[in-house]
Design goal:
heterodimer; A: 114 residues; alpha+beta; B: 211 residues; five-stranded antiparallel beta sheet; globular
């Protein structure tokens, strides 16, 4: 089975909220994600400045090893809604959020060849 | 064509084959033009034990027979029946497909969202056959009447040559998990599927169901 598969969160924070959101992701979301097989790849902050008057773009990338693990992750998130609730509980920090799935370009054809 | 589906969650699932054998002659009295009654296959999720799918010329023909089906199913010991009544929505058939599918799958969905989100959910779902070649016939329909505890709004049906076509290609292709599934994902900001789905499938008799 091909992998890894990336789960990508692109978040625009309200001014001054990025540092608090990143801390919450580490403290509250990461344990839930790990429990359903997700590995934290990285958290990117742009611009890389903590400033109470600045809005940041926070990009969080997670990985799962393959498609089977992706479905395990997805089913886990539906059975236990605490990960979904994380986003509603921190909505006051977030101006906009997008969530998408991605894969390295080298395995795109392989993934589709099922 | 008007469609009626009932998913029976039996009190005693070990009775499934007996129930189907008893059910078939009674379903013949419902005046349906097409009758599917099959035991669900391993792997269904919230999918019950028996699928009953009936087709009528139109809604009027169905309503004339509704009491007959209701009484027939009331006589079966169930913990729950999920059901939907619906006219056919957008549908398609793979070029050259005239029958021979071994598996009929139906997905009952409860979706709520903005008109734009629901339209995109439908468009994304209906793009799947372009990528999933194992899907021989498909139809996405709005629900007129839902039965059971979940207010089902949509039915997504497919026919497959075999189980691998459903559990393999359909489930594993990126169009499923990277495009369509976001609408089912409670972490997706605009997700629309609000309740656990009824994902169920049974053997087909090989005659086309979705036309």
């Amino acid at each position: 089975m091909s992998g890894p598969i990336f789960i990508v969160e692109r978040i625009t924070t309200h001014p001054g909220c990025a540092e608090k959101l990143v801390a919450a992701i580490h403290d509250d979301y990461l344990p839930l994600a790990t429990a359903r097989g997700m590995s934290l790849d990285r958290i990117l902050v742009s611009p890389p400045i903590w400033d109470p008057e600045l809005s940041n773009e926070v990009t969080v990338t997670w990985t799962v090893p393959d498609t089977a693990a992706w479905w395990q992750m997805a089913k886990g998130g539906r059975a236990d809604r605490r990960s979904a609730e994380f986003w509603t509980n921190h909505a006051d920090l977030i101006a906009h959020r997008e969530r998408s799935m991605a894969a390295p370009s080298g395995i795109v054809q392989e993934l589709a060849d099922v | 064509m008007y469609n009626v589906t009932r998913i029976l969650h039996l009190t005693d699932p070990t009775d499934t084959q007996v129930v189907i054998e008893q059910l078939r002659p009674k379903l013949d009295t419902t005046a349906a033009s097409r009758i599917v009654a099959g035991a669900t296959l391993p792997g269904v999720i919230n999918g019950g034990d028996v699928i009953v799918h009936l087709q009528y010329a139109d809604q009027e023909a169905w309503l004339a027979q509704r009491d007959v089906l209701d009484k027939t199913l009331d006589a079966i010991a169930t913990t729950r029946i999920d059901g939907v009544d619906y006219a056919g929505g957008p549908a398609g058939v793979r070029d050259g497909y005239t029958g021979g599918a071994d598996v009929y799958r139906t997905l009952l969905i409860h979706a709520e969202g903005s008109d734009g989100a629901l339209a995109q959910f439908s468009a994304d779902t209906l793009c799947m056959p372009r990528y999933v070649q194992s899907m021989l016939a498909w139809r996405l329909s709005p629900v007129d009447r839902a039965i059971g505890p979940t207010p089902w709004t949509h039915v997504w049906e497919q026919e497959y040559r075999d189980l691998d076509g459903l559990l393999g290609e359909y489930m594993l292709h990126p169009v499923h998990w990277a495009v369509v599934d976001r609408w089912f994902d409670p972490e997706f900001p605009d997700f629309v599927v609000r309740s656990p789905v009824c994902h169920t499938y049974c053997p087909s008799d090989g005659q086309p169901i979705i036309t």
